[in-house]
Amino acid sequence: MFIDSHCHIEDDETAMRAYAVGVCGMLNAGKDVDEIAAQIEMCARFAQLRQQGKEAPLMWTSAGVHPDSAPQKLAQIKVEDLLKAAENPFVVAIGECGLDYYYGAEYQNEQKEMFVRHVEAAGISGMPIMIHQREAEADMLAILKEGKKKYPALSGVIHCFTSNQAFAEEVKALGFYISASGIITFKSAQDIAEVFKQYPMSKILIETDSPYLAPVPYRGKINEPAYVVKTAEKLAQLREVEVSEIERITEENFFNLYLKAKKNI
Ligand SMILES: [Zn+2]
């Protein structure tokens, strides 16, 4: 099955459309741990349908605070809040979280402090961390290296990877995964595509980050998990393998990273 390893879905119909084209698993990424209840409810609705023998996708979610919200959330969200949310069986990752100096250049300190709390929560819980990174490579690596020192088993993924080969090498050395979004289908993103051509295939995930960043030929439209197949097709072309091979290995990679994600929910 195809798994959209990072999307933002608000309605069941969108997920069902993905299921209809073989995208049978989705990680509906949390952006604000205060609002995680709605995501958990959606996961539970689909799990219930499956238990009744009906057709429905597998869905999981994650507990985190997007770096865009770091200034507002800094005073409220503590490591304990993330850990508490992570106890739910549908929550399989800490995130999304990270550093975005493109949109939040004036809030770098708040973002760093918030990100460190997520690394702590991931380290303590043993759950992988789902990372958003934009134009903050040096600070990101410094925090992750510290985290690795303290928690050697720390694992995670740089979601929607848009950085360069040098950063990819550092991420690889940490043993982290990178995730390909629709961006790799853009003609303007050949350097990013090149990273995905070379990165260890056992450490690559695919995603839409929907509703943003629809892949070619849907570029400019509202993105949805069904379109993750287009990213898989591009990856197959880059790696010179069949799409079915990309489907198989990215599914395997997903379950290797997100150990708490089970197929029998
Ligand atoms: Zn996202």
How would you characterize this protein structure?
With 265 residues, this protein is an alpha/beta fold. It has a single domain (2-257), classed as Metal-dependent hydrolases (TIM Barrel). Helices cover 43% and strands 17% of the residues. It is built from ten helices and eight strands. Helix 4 packs across helix 5. Residues 6, 8, 29, 96, 209 line the site of zinc ion (ZN).
Features:
single chain, 265 residues, alpha/beta, TIM Barrel, 8-stranded parallel β-sheet, 8 strands, 43% helix, binds zinc ion
The CATH topology corresponds to TIM Barrel
* Low-pLDDT segments: none
Total helical segments: 10
Structural category is alpha/beta
Helical residues, percent? 40-55%
Basic shape: globular
Largest sheet: 8 strands, parallel
CATH architecture: Alpha-Beta Barrel
Mean pLDDT: 97
